[in-house]
Specification:
By secondary structure, the protein is of the alpha+beta class. The protein has helices spanning about 5-20, 40-50; strands at about 55-60, 65-70, 75-80, 85-90. Helix content is about 35%, strand content about 30%. A four-stranded antiparallel beta sheet has the order 1-2-3-4, with helices on one face. It starts with a helix and ends with a strand.
């Protein structure tokens, strides 16, 4: 195997590991099975009621992750689908 090929493989593997380590998502909100979760739209409504302009939402692990803007800053809000409690907030 050539030195260039070895370096290329090492770079690709290193990039993958770095990407995983850089993830800042919060993933652990509930142990409840998905069929028992409250609707994602309820998490969005809760963020709107708190003054956020909701841009989008998705499921991240066992959390609803809502992206919202407030005061000109972007936030990631992580809600428990079990009781819609806010578990974690990240300002971007």
């Amino acid at each position: 195997m050539s030195v260039i090929r070895v370096l290329a493989i090492a770079l690709i593997v290193g990039t993958g590991i770095g990407s995983t380590a850089m993830a800042d998502g919060f993933r652990d909100c509930t142990k409840l099975d998905k069929p028992s979760w409250k609707p994602a739209s309820d998490a969005e409504a809760k963020a709107k009621a708190a003054g956020y302009e909701v841009r989008r939402s998705k499921i991240e692990g066992s959390c609803y992750e809502v992206y919202g803007v407030k005061g000109g800053k972007l936030f990631e809000l992580f809600y428990s689908p079990e009781d819609l409690s806010l578990k974690h907030t990240i300002a971007k």
